[in-house]
Amino acid sequence: MLNKAKWLAKEAGLRIKYMTSKDCIFCKIIKGEIKVEPIIESKLVIAFNDTNPVAATHILIVPKKHIESVATIEDSDADEIIEMFSVANKIVRERKLSAYRLTFNGGSYQHVGHLHMHLLAGGKIEWSRL
Ligand code: AMP
Ligand code: ZN
Fold first, then answer.
1. What is the pTM of this model?
2. In testing the pocket of ligand 1, which one of 23, 26, 46, 52 has its CB within 8 Å of the most ligand atoms?
3. What SS3 state is found at 77?
4. Model confidence at 95: pLDDT above 90
């Protein structure tokens, strides 16, 4: 799996530094080694506030399974992907967000090599920092 991710990244000319789940910051959050205040936690997904928000609401929706990026999603990850959107749906409804954006970064735009959705809302989004 990791070899496939590295190969895909090389083929696509991506600069993303792939890492194992052992040294992955989001895996450490999922294992409780780094503390966060969960907004929603389900069997497959955790959502928490981004530490460096670029909008008034900036939530990360993260699968508990270590999937590196959009480029490495496999059919077997379908439950995690559906659950990520289900969590986004709950947050948007519960907070009655009238305008929002869901973003996935990849390649050189992605800084944490563990798939995550950014849920952004409120005020001006500082895209240059995302
Ligand atoms: P990306 O550039 O799409 O990989 O975004 C990674 C995001 O993770 C950035 O917006 C960071 O601010 C955020 N981030 C990194 N470490 C943490 C952490 N410990 N808790 C919450 N957010 C984090
Ligand atoms: Zn991870």
1. 0.87
2. 52
3. helix
4. yes
